Structures are given as structure tokens and as C-alpha cells.
Amino acid sequence: MFSNEGIGAVLSQYIRNEEPIIRYFSKRFGKPERNYCFTRKELLAIVKSIEHFHHHFYGWKFLLWTDHAFLRFLLKFKEPEGQIARWIQRLQDYDFDIQPRKGFIK
Fold this sequence. Notes:
By secondary structure, the chain is an alpha+beta fold. It is about 35% helix and about 25% strand.
């Protein structure tokens, strides 16, 4: 999740129909990042969050919840370019599925 000021993420795990929080992550955007479009900010939030939780995710399949459904399409885009291509390449080391989740507050 992100705002115009930065990104935030929550790492949780389903255990017996409950979803306890394991860790939080947040990071302020730099001046250039504040000017990114909505989709670029959301993708950056995902890249930074997954890399922050690398030791939890690497080698395991996990579920990424987001309210930005376009990201599923973007990550499967056949010919991404520039910064988007580099971010997508960084995510290819991880095994995850994207699920829509409504109701996140931005």
C-alpha cells in the first residue's frame, strides 16, 4: 500500500482462520518517487516490500494482496521497458500469486 508520501506493508500469515501480523514495513518516498504515477508507485511498493521481507519469502510461495488489479497484467507484460522492466526482473526471483483485496486505505 502507498500514499503520496511513502509505502507501507504488512507481513501476516493465516493460522487457524486468523491472520496475525508478523512484521510491518514502511519507507518514505524520495522527491522523484513522489512524482511517479499511481501504477509505478504501487509496483515500487511491492518491489521494496518483497525485498524487505526477502528472508521470509525467498524459496517459498506466498500470496500478495493488493487492491490494484492492473498489477497482475503488468507483471505478465511481454515487453516491459526501462524501470518497469528492471523492477519486474527483480520480482522474478520470488514465487507469488497476486490476489485482489478491496478496502485498503491509501
